[in-house]
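Need NADH-ubiquinone oxidoreductase chain 3's 3D structure for a figure. Predict it.
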Amino acid sequence: MTTAKTIMIMAAIPQMMVIMITILPPKTPDMQKTSPYECGFDPLGNSRLPFSLQFFLIAIFFLLFDLEIALLLPLPWAMNMAPTTTITWTLTLMTLLAIGLAYEWIQGALEWSK
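Structure prediction for NADH-ubiquinone oxidoreductase chain 3:
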């Protein structure tokens, strides 16, 4: 199979899925489908718990800094021919993230309780 045929097939499948979604009617939810299931018993309380936005923000910050580590660790092995380029890229990434962290800190996004 040629590359052009493969690309056409890979483009046609999502298009067919989108067309099927628009053609098929949506199912209307009834009371049984929207209520939480608790082993046949009536629900004891609200199934939706309040979620702390601050916890979510801290988790996002953690993911960003984790991504920074994932980008910085292989950098010396990837660019071992030109150490000045490696140092420049490392300092650029760390500077950008430090500026972002300082901005978040100044804005109060890292405060757990307000």
